[in-house]
Amino acid sequence: MQNSFDKFDKIVERKNTLSVKWDNCQSIFNNDDILPMWVADSDWKTVPEVIEKLKSRAEHGVFGYCYADDKIKESIINWIERKYNWKIKKEWIVFDTGVVPALNFTLNMITDPSDGVIIQPPVYRPFFEAVDNNHCELIKNNLIYKNGKYEMNFNNLQKIIDDYKNNNKTVKAVILCSPHNPVGRVWNKNEINKLIKIAEKENIYILSDEIHCDLTYPGIKHFPTALIGENYREKIITYMAPSKTFNIAGLHTSYTIITNKKLRDKYTDIKHGFSSGNSPFGLDALKTAYNKGDNWLNNQQHYLKGNLDYTADYLKKEIPEIKLIYPEGTYLLWLDCRDLGFENNENLIDFFNNKAEVGLNPGIWFGESGSGFMRMNIACPRSILKKGLDRINKAVKKIRG
Ligand SMILES: Cc1ncc(COP(=O)(O)O)c(C=O)c1O
After folding, report:
1. Do 158 and 230 have their domain in common?
2. Which of 73, 185, 250, 365 is the most exposed place for a label (fewest CB within 10 A)?
3. 243, 260, 292: which is the final residue of a domain?
4. Is the CB of 236 within 6 Å of ligand 1?
5. Which of 232, 258, 292 is the last residue of a domain?
6. In what order do the strands lie in the sheet with 361-362?
7. Domain match, 68 and 164 both
C-alpha cells in the first residue's frame, strides 16, 4: 500500500530536463559529478491533480494568449483566507511571471535614482540586484546573529534612516523577506509590527516578499505583513506565488497584492511592455494547486520536517564542525561552516565543490555577512539528502587532523 510519503521518497530523474539545478553543474560548479542541493526548487513531482490538469490542457493543443479570470482569483483569495485569515479583494491582485521581476517593477515605480532602499543581509541575492538595477542606493541593515538565531536589528534600522535624513537623502523602501531566505526565520507578529511602526513613522514602503510563506514547519505560523499592518497597507506591497509551495517555479506564475488603487494602476502601466502575460499552464496549475493541494502540502511539510530532523541529527553526531541554524520555515538550511577552519570563502567553496562534491550556495552570495556559511536545499528524497551528507562527512573526515 502507498503511504503518503512514498511520493516524496521516490527519485525522479531530473537530468536532461533543462533543469537549472541538475543540468548546469558543469558551468556553475565546474564539476559534473556534483550532487546539486542549491537552486530553490524541489526534486519531487507536484500535486497529482495539477499534473492531470496540465495533461488535459496539453491535449487541448491550442496555446493562445490567456488571462486570469475570477475563478483563478477566487482560488488565491480562498487560499490566503484559509491559510492566513487574511481577506483580500480580487481587485488587489496583479499577476506576474515571477517575484523577482515584480520587485524590480515596484522599485522602478516608487523610486527615483539615488533613493535609498534597505535590505537585511544575509538575504536572497536578487534583492541586491533589484536595488542596483533601479539605480538606487543599497542600504544594508544586517540581521543580528545571536545565540544561534537571527533577528532584525531595529535600533540600527532607525539609526540608518536618521543618518540618511540628516544628509538630506531619502529612504524609499525596505525589502522584507518573510519567511527569510536564507536564515529560515518566519518573522513573528511582534517583529513585523516593529518594522511596520518604523516604516509608518518614516513613510517608507515595505516590499514584503512572502514567496516561502506556505513552507513553515509544524507549529510555526506565517503572518502576512499587510494583514498585521492593515492601517498602513497602502504602502505595503506583498509578493506571493504557488511556485515554491508546489514545485511549479518553471511555470512562472506569481502575483502581487497592491491595495492602493493609484499605485496598482501605475504598477500595471509600468510593467506593460516589459512583461508578457501568464501561460495557460501556469494559471491552470496555480488554480488547481490552491483548490486541491492542501493535503499534498501538509504531507510535504511533514516530509520536510523529517528531512530537517534527519539533517540536524546527522550534523550533530557526525559533523559537529557544521552548525545548523534551525529554521522555522523554507526548505533551505543555513549552515555555519566557520568551524571547518577554512581561511577564506574560496577555500570553503572549493571544499564543497571539489572535495565533498556537493553543490550548495556559498553564504557569501547572500552578502558579506554570509561569509563562512553555506546554504543547503533539503527538498529532495531522503536518500539523496543522506548521500549529500555522507559525501560531506567523508570529505570532512579527510581534513580533520
Ligand atoms: C525570497 C525569494 N524571492 C523570490 C524568489 C524567486 O522568485 P521568482 O522565481 O518568482 O522570481 C526566490 C527563489 O528562490 C526566493 O527565495
Report:
1. yes
2. 250
3. 292
4. no
5. 292
6. 323-325, 332-336, 373-377, 361-362
7. yes
